[in-house]
Structure formats: structure tokens, C-alpha cells
């Protein structure tokens, strides 16, 4: 089902060409038609995609549906502006999810293993126990943790399932979602460096696949895509897709990286948080340096021949935590989880002592504890639905605050103002709670979904246009008040979630 996307399309026709910006996310695919010269959004559409949870800790999607949703959203944009001739394409996409397909037929060889999927957690733990150097090798080369969120363990599992079902190793192609979309659009097996940096297989210094890591995860390099810089060009469209043949794909970025690019976070002191299904908190670094424990060092983008690195913390459940709580509290069908909870939570001044830790598949940054359990603490006979709603909103803000504190813990990084994007930023209560917990301003983006615009901005620059970042729409200032008791209650709840003894 095609749904409208919240932008107003101007009636004037573009003067200097049109860009199709595709953004394939966890829950939907968005498409924007952007005037290359001015950056004006001429049309937009969104097509939802399904997620399934076939077993505890398993998260799957359908690769064919991801492509169908991309075509549907793109087609919706083109129909909105009849006669449009697209001059170029940009892509932003969900990151660590894995697609495996037959390079002869282009058919998927199993489900998409989503970035939240934790089926390889036991394998990762066994590898770390049997080879004490494995986690250190991964951390040193990639800047990431040996964790099932990242792609390589899932790639290993996907290739193993495909070959066990009869596929020949030489026919198997595997990659992140950007590489799957590029294959469908252009017929070429390519991937962008920032996406590749999330696989546990890319050396951050050389920006190339690392032979030792390929051996560690038993991934044949022949199954992987060719790695390209973010602005290096990614082939031309084939017939049979949403566009005519020959349209160049000029820029690709990972979705969280694209949001940071759109926010103009290129200098130390700047940082962003994307509030999606999960959350990504990122800040650029002056050079490739090791981050504090629980925080990743990652390649944000490679543009103009130069790499930009960042510190990042990944939260596994933020928007999904709001949706779960809204469903649990019997939100009306079709209601936005965040909007429903915000309205409910506003009826009480606080959570009434209730704390919610949404560790649905364990905890991500800065804890990286896959054995943590989701918990709701502090429930009394006086607890109401409104208190639970407020606790869910606070849980998202507390998790982001944990990551910001960890990023800054060694004194080598600082986020003076947090720039926020994503659907949940529409909740003024969540954004105010975030500013209060961080004790610093939060700026919300004019367009809450910044990823598609970030990739479009890079594409426009690649095509030779001057682009100036627009100012944020709303600046939220921390309210007076002592946040210490709330932060201590949250820390105790996280410890309980992780099975640790707690004291006041």
C-alpha cells in the first residue's frame, strides 16, 4: 500500500534536472524527487515493508518485498509529477541487515536477516571463548564489537543455509541492503564504504575487505560486493525497474550516516541522534582513534577522496519500544505508537516510579549485553497506563543519554548540541525529556526523516551544486530540575535487567 509522505510538492517544474532519492529503512521505503539545483522536494512517497519474528531473537524481512517497496515508492513519486525525467539516483539504506541471493537468477536465497536479528549470538560467544584474540582483532581492524547485530555472523549463517539447500558457493552473492538494491537497479554487485564498515569485514584504515577477518568468519570474498567510496558512482539503471535504462546512481550512504551528513555534523562538538526502530548516536572524530568501551569507531563516509570517521553508539530498541508499549496498552489500530504514548503520558507529571528497560534482544551500546532481559520495574497498585506510557518515552531518552555519556567518557569527544531526526522527534515530550536528561540543547530537524535528504545532498554536491545546510526547525532547551534521581533509577533498572545486584 502506497502512503503519502509529509512534504508539500511545489507546482513549479524543476529547471536543472531531478534526482530520485531512495531511502530503504527497517519499516518502510521512502522516495523523494528532489530538484538538483535548489534541493526542493517536488514529490514524495512511502511504501511500508513487513518484519517477522519467527523465533525468539530472530528478525527477518523479505528481500523481494524490499525491492517491490522501492519500486512502488519510486513509482508514486514519478506519478505525482507526470513527465519527469530523472537525471540521477541516490540511495540511503538500513545498514547491518543481510541479503543472500543467486547471482545467476537474482533470486533471494532465504530471508533478509535483519540488523536486530540475534540468532548468531551463541556463535559469537563461542568464537570469543574459543579464540580469545578474535574480539580484539575485530575491534582493532573494524572499530566494532563482536556482536550479532553486525553483518558478518549473519552472512556466515546465510551462506551456510543457502549452500546447505543446494546453492553453489560460486553462485552465491551476499551483502547489505545497499548492495541488494544496487544489484536490482543496475545488475552490479557493489557496496558503499560506510555500509561495508558495518559488516565486521572492512579494515577501517585501508577501506578494503580484510583477509584475516574473511577467514575468521569463513566468508568467501567472491561472494562479497566491490567496495566503493560514497560518491564514486554505482552503475546505471537497467530496464525493467522504476526508471528507464541508463540513469546513473551517483551517491550512496548508510541511513544513520546520511542523517549525520544532512545535519552538517562534520566537526568535533557536533553530533546527531536518529530515532528510528533503534537509535544511532554519532559524532565525527578528527582522526581514526579507538573509542571507549561499548562505543564503536566507524567510517561515516568517504567523499572527495577523504574518509570521515565517527564515534557511534547503537541502541537496539527505541521506536520499536514505543510501538511495543503502544500495542500493549491497546492503542487504536493505525495509531502512531509515539503519538499515542505522548498524548497518554502528558496526563501525568512523571512515570510514578515506573522504569521500563526494552531489552527485547538484549542491550546494545554502551552495554552490549545480549543476555539482558526486558523489564518493567516500580509497578504498584497505583500504576496507570499513563505511567507506563511515560516510562516508555523516558526509556528512549535514557538510552540515548547513556550513549552520549559513554561517547564523552574519555574526554576525547564532546557533543555540545544534539541534532535529532527520525519519526519519534515529532514527540515534543520525548525531545524535552531528552534535553533535560542531557542538560544541553536538542535541535530537531525540519524534516524528521533526514536520511533520504542526506544522500540527496551528497548526490547534488557530487553533481557539482553548492549546497548549504538549512537550520534546524526547533531548539529545545533543558528545563530546570534535578535529573539525578531519574538517572540513578534507570541505572538500577539496567543492572536488574542484566542480572546484577543493585544498591541505592
> In order across it, which strands form the biggest sheet?
17-18-16-15-21-22-23
How far is the first residue's CA from the last residue's CA? Answer: 51 Å
CA-based gyration radius:
22 Å
Number of helical elements = 14
Low-confidence stretches: 1-15
Largest sheet: 7 strands, mixed
Roughly what is the average pLDDT, rounded to an integer?
90
Q: How many extended strands?
A: 23
The best one-word shape is globular
Helix residue percentage: 25-40%
Strand content: 15-25%
Structural class: alpha+beta
Write a short abstract of this structure:
The chain has about 500 residues and is α+β, with helices and mostly antiparallel strands. The protein contains 14 helices and 23 strands. It has helices at about 65-80, 120-130, 135-140, 150-165, 175-185, 195, 210-215, 255-260, 320-330, 335-345, 385-405, 430-440, 450-460, 485-495, and strands spanning about 5, 20-25, 30-35, 40-50, 60, 85-95, 100, 110-115, 170-175, 190, 200-205, 210, 225-230, 250-255, 270-275, 280-285, 295-305, 305-315, 355, 375, 415-420, 440-445, 475.
Which key features would you list for this structure?
single chain; 504 residues; alpha+beta; seven-stranded mixed β-sheet; six-stranded mixed β-sheet; 14 helices; 23 strands; 22% strand; globular; disordered N terminus
Amino acid at each position: 500500500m502506497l502512503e503519502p509522505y509529509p512534504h508539500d510538492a511545489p507546482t513549479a517544474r524543476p529547471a536543472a534536472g531531478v534526482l530520485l532519492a531512495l531511502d530503504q529503512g527497517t519499516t518502510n521505503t521512502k522516495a523523494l524527487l528532489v530538484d538538483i539545483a535548489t534541493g526542493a522536494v517536488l514529490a514524495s512517497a512511502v511504501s511500508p515493508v513487513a518484519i517477522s519474528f519467527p523465533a525468539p531473537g530472530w528478525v527477518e524481512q523479505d528481500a523481494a518485498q524490499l525491492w517491490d517497496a522501492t519500486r512502488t515508492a519510486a513509482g508514486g513519486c514519478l506519478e505525482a509529477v507526470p513527465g519527469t525525467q530523472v537525471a540521477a539516483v541516490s540511495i540511503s539504506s538500513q545498514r547491518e541487515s543481510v541479503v543472500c541471493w543467486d547471482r545467476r537468477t537474482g533470486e533471494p536465497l532465504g530471508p533478509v536477516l535483519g540488523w536486530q536479528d540475534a540468532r548468531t549470538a551463541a556463535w559469537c560467544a563461542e568464537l570469543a571463548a574459543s579464540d580469545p584474540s578474535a574480539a580484539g582483532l575485530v575491534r582493532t581492524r573494524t572499530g566494532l564489537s563482536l556482536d550479532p547485530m553486525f553483518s558478518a555472523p549473519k552472512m556466515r549463517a546465510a551462506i551456510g543455509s543457502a549452500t546447505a539447500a543446494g546453492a553453489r558457493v560460486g553462485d552465491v552473492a551476499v551483502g547489505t541492503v545497499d548492495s541488494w538494491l544496487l544489484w536490482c537497479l543496475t545488475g552490479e554487485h557493489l557496496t558503499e564504504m560506510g555500509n561495508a564498515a558495518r559488516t565486521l569485514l572492512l579494515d577501517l584504515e585501508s577501506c578494503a575487505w580484510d583477509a584475516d577477518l574473511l577467514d575468521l568468519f569463513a566468508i568467501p570474498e567472491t561472494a562479497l560486493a566491490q567496495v566503493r567510496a560514497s560518491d564514486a558512482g554505482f552503475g546505471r539503471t537497467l530496464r525493467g525497474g522504476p526508471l528507464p535504462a541508463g540513469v546513473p546512481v551517483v551517491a550512496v550512504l548508510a541511513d544513520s550516516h546520511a542523517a549525520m551528513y544532512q545535519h552538517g555534523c562534520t566537526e568535533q562538538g557536533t553530533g546527531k541522534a536518529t530515532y528510528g526502530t533503534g537509535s544511532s548516536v554519532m559524532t565525527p572524530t578528527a582522526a581514526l582513534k579507538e573509542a571507549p568501551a561499548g562505543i564503536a569507531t566507524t567510517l561515516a563516509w568517504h567523499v572527495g577522496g577523504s574518509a570521515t570517521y565517527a564515534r557511534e553508539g547503537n541502541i537496539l530498541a527505541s521506536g520499536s519500544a514505543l510501538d511495543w508499549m503502544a500495542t500493549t496498552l491497546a492503542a487504536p489500530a493505525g495509531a502512531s505508537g509515539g503519538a499515542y504514548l505522548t498524548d497518554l503520558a502528558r496526563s501525568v507529571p512523571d512515570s510514578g516510579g515506573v522504569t521500563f528497560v526494552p531489552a527485547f534482544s538484549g542491550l546494545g551500546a554502551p552495554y552490549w549485553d545480549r543476555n539482558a532481559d526486558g523489564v518493567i520495574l516500580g509497578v504498584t497498585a497505583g500504576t496507570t497506563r499513563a505511567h507506563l506510557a511515560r516510562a516508555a518515552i523516558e526509556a528512549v531518552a535514557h538510552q540515548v543519554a547513556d550513549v552520549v555519556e559513554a561517547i564523552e567518557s574519555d574526554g576525547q569527544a564532546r557533543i555540545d548540541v544534539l541534532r535529532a531526526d527520525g519519526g519519534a522527534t515529532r514527540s515534543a515530550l520525548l525531545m524535552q525529556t531528552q534535553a533535560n536528561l542531557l542538560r544541553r540543547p536538542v535541535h530537531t530537524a525540519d524534516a524528521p526523516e533526514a536520511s533520504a535528504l542526506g544522500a540527496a545532498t551528497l548526490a547534488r554536491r557530487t553533481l557539482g551544486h553548492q549546497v548549504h545546510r538549512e537550520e534546524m526547525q526547533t531548539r529545545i532547551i533543558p528545563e530546570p530540575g534535578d535529573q539525578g534521581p531519574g538517572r540513578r533509577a534507570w541505572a538500577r533498572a539496567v543492572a536488574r535487567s542484566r542480572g546484577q545486584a543493585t544498591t541505592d
